[in-house]
Amino acid sequence: MTFFKNNKLRFFSIICMATMLAFLIPMVQVGGVVGPTRVFAETVDYYQLKVGDEAVIVMETEDAAYDVIKQLKDQFIEPEENVVDVKLTPAVTVEKISVPKNETQPVVENNMSKAMEVLLDTEEADNTYTVKEGDTLWDISEAAGMSIDAIQMENPEMDPENILPGDEISIKKAESLVNVIVEYESQSEVTVPFETVYEEDPEMYVDEEEYVSVEGQDGSKIVTERIVKVNGVTSKVEEIASEVTVEPVTQVIIVGGLERPEPEPEPEEEYEEESYEEESTSSSSSSSSSSSSSSSSSSSSSYSAATYSGSGQDVVNYALQFVGNPYVWGGTSLTNGCDCSGFVYRVFNDCGYAINRWPDDDFPHVSASELKPGDVVRYSGHYTIYIGNGMEISAVNEEQGIRTHPLYYSRGAFWYGIRIID
Predict the structure, then answer these.
(1) Which of 320, 347, 346 is nearest to 405 (CA)?
(2) Which of 175, 336, 387, 410 would disulfide-bridge 379, Cβ 3.0–4.6 Å?
(3) What is the C-alpha separation between 16 and 129, in angstroms, rounded?
(4) How far is it, in rounded angstroms, from Cα 246 to Cα 249?
(5) pLDDT values of the chain reduced to their tens digit, one per residue, 422 residues
(6) DSSP label at 10?
(7) At 62, phi and psi to the nearest 5?
(8) Please, are residues 406 and 367 in contact by the beta-carbon 8 Å criterion?
(9) d(CA 144, CA 155)
(10) Residue 243: helix, strand or coil by DSSP?
């Protein structure tokens, strides 16, 4: 009894511990091995590639995961180019995950090519873009991730130089899961075209042929451009700097600034008197022998009158009598002097055709290949009469007077022929 009395407290403690163990053992059995295994079970580490917030590929090692990203970028980086920036959109990140060995393991992608195909998988989508204030085709191209050429092909009716706010542009493109955007800087030498300016010469008539006083020369400049490519397709090209290396030389063309005055018509009585004198002289010369007629034809004071038969050849024969006679600005005298329009005017009027000094709008026009004797040839600032066989006659200038010369002799450009005689 003394022993139990002395160890009463110790026995009580043992009984309490035994009771607690009796309660704990069933609890452990109910939990089974799951509870302790979750705490102490071994795990397997993997590395998953995430596009934005979505996990798309699982790799065995971290190096393999980052190698996929590197190869994805390298696929669209052009060698020997000055690369400024490379980025992926949406962003592609690598995340470590640990999976208990006793759980189902994820599918691991060991084939690098298949991993790339997953990231670059495309899906064609049809969309419509509404043009906003200030938009350019470059802006739309960049926003849509579509090249300008592709946009123009999809919208053949669109005027790329005249897009307006509110216009709807069809956007049809293959959208990739990931876009690789590469930005380059490129330098090149380009030609700077010369400008052309026109200067008036106050002493030169407006109908005289213009001429170049200073020859234009192209310049050159070094241009730095920013080039943006999306998955290898050019999306934007922007000039960010330029430096002129050779200044262009402006071409200067001189044009006439002086209007020709309208020539005053000769007094009617003077014309009649001259015609009478000419006809009288012609009558006397026609009674002469052929040799004396030739002598009269070369004279500057007398000539044969027109036959008025109406043919173009008769007009030519009549005009040829006055070769060698003087040129006088504004004149209409075949003997004392005339200018180019005055010569044509007087020859045709003497031959019975009432034309004015500028018959352009009164008669039909013909081409150079259709010319026949008696047609008037119109140049820029000059009139002649076509003789035939590629020759013509006109009052050329003060130095040369009335003379025959080849077609196109005039310094002005050929305009057309004028058919006065059908």
Answers:
(1) 320
(2) 410
(3) 80
(4) 9
(5) 454 455 556 656 666 676 666 555 454 444 443 333 344 469 999 999 999 999 999 999 999 999 999 999 998 998 878 999 999 999 999 999 999 999 999 999 988 888 888 888 877 667 888 888 888 887 787 777 677 778 888 888 888 778 889 898 888 766 788 999 999 999 999 999 999 998 988 878 777 778 888 999 999 999 999 999 988 888 788 899 999 999 999 999 998 888 777 665 555 444 333 333 443 334 333 333 333 333 333 333 344 444 455 688 999 999 999 999 999 988 999 999 999 999 999 999 998 898 999 899 999 999 988 999 999 999 888 999 999 998 999 999 998 999 999 887 765 688 999 999 98
(6) H
(7) -65, -40
(8) no
(9) 14
(10) strand
Both structure tokens of 352: 């019975």
d(CA 281, CA 303): 7
Strands, DSSP E only, in 265-380?
332-333, 337-338, 365-366, 376-379
Structure tokens at 142: 């960049």
Residue 165: count of CB within 10 angstroms of its CB = 10
φ, ψ at 327 (rounded to 5°): -100, 130
